[in-house]
Amino acid sequence: MRAVNRVTTLLGLKQAPSAQALESLAQHAARLETTLDQLIDRAVGGDDEALGVVADSLTVCETYFLRHPEDFATVQEHAERRAASGTPVLRVWSLGCATGEEAWSLAGVLAPISPTVHVVGSDINPRSLARARFGRYGRGSVRSHHELTWLAQADDGWQVAALLRGNVSFSVANAAARPAVPTRLGAAPDVIFCRNLLLYLEPAVAEAAVAHLAGLVAEQGLLVLGVLEGPHGELPGFERVNFPFSNAWVRRTTAPVRVRAITLPPVTRPVDPREVVKRARRLANEGRLAEALASLDPASTDPSVLYLRGCVLLERAEPMVAEATFRQVLSLDRQHVLARLQLLLAAVGRRDVAAIELERAGLEAALGQAPDDAKLDDEGVTAGYVRRLVQGL
Ligand SMILES: C[S@@+](CC[C@H](N)C(=O)[O-])C[C@H]1O[C@@H](n2cnc3c(N)ncnc32)[C@H](O)[C@@H]1O
What is the pLDDT of residues 110-132, one digit of tens each? Predict the structure, then answer.
C-alpha cells in the first residue's frame, strides 16, 4: 500500500491528504533525515515522534477552553443529577482532546460536583498530549466569557491550577481503531466526550466509532458527540438529552448496543466545491431549502460549503445548528469573516454582551487590514460592507 494510503487508513480520514500537506510532511521528514515513506512507516508502527509529526500535518487541532459551552452545561447537569442520586460521575474520557483544553475544562466543571472525578484526555497526536500535560496555554485557548476559576494567569498566558492536576491524565488513543478504555480509568467511563473529530473521518469509520464508544460508556453514562457527528438516527438503548443544545445521549440499558443499520446519505465528492455552492445557492434562492441543505455535506471540509449550509439552516429557523456550523467553519478557517459575522449577529440577537464583545473582536481581527472593496463571497459582499454593518450594530 502506498504511504499516503497507509496514513489515511491509520487516521481513518475521509479525504486523502492534500498535495500541500504531503509536501509539508516530506519537508519534516527531510529535517529528520528520513524519507516520507519511512516517516509514515514509523508513525503507523506507533513511534511517538513520527506520529506527532504526521498528525500535526494532517489533522485539525483547533480547540479552546469550554468550547461549545452548552456541552459543558449538559455534562454539569448530568453530574449534578448523578451526585444527587448517590452515583457520582467518577470517570470521564475526552477522546480527541488535542492540546487538552477540553479535558481540563471537564475536570474544572466537574471537580466541584464530584471532587474525586478523573478525566483522561486522549488523542492520536503525542505532541499535542505533551503540551496538554504541561498545562500552560496562550491567549487563544481562552475565548470563553465564563469565569475559569481553575486557570491561573501566568507570565504570557494561563496555567492550569495545581489543584486540578491530580484529576487529569493523558494517553494516546486512535478513535479509528476501536480504542480500549484508558487503563487509568479502571472501568467503563461515566462520560465520554468525542467532539470535532469524527467529522474528519470516513463516514463508515465514524459510524463504527460512534457504535464502539456507545458500547463502552457505563450504564446511566453520558456520550457527547459534536453537533453534526452522528449518530444518523436513533441510538438504541440511549435517550437523547438536552436536545437541540447538545448531541448528548444517556445510556439507559446494559444490553449490548447494536446501532441499527444506518443508511448513510451518499457522500458527495464534488470535484469542485464551488459548483456545489453555486447549485445549493440556486436551490436556496428558489426556496428549495431542504434540497439545498441535502446537497451541502455536513462533514465537508470546505469552509464555503459549510458556511452556506449554516446560512440555509438559519433560513430554516435552526439557529442552534446553524451556529454550530459557523463554528465548524472557523475550525477550518479561523479568519472566515462571514462566519464570524454570523456569530456576532447571533450574539447580538441573544443580547449577550460578553459574547458580543468576544465575537466583535474576532471579526475585527479576521477583517484585519482587508481593503474595503475586498470581496468576501461570490455575491459581492465586501469587507467595507461588513465594517459598515458592524458599526451600525
Ligand atoms: C479539531 S480537534 C478537536 C479538539 C476538541 N475535541 C474540541 O472539540 O475542541 C480534533 C483532534 O482530533 C484528533 N484526531 C484526529 N484523528 C484522530 C484519531 N483517529 N484518533 C484520535 N484523535 C484523532 C486530532 O489530533 C485533533 O487533536
Answer: 999 999 999 999 999 999 999 99
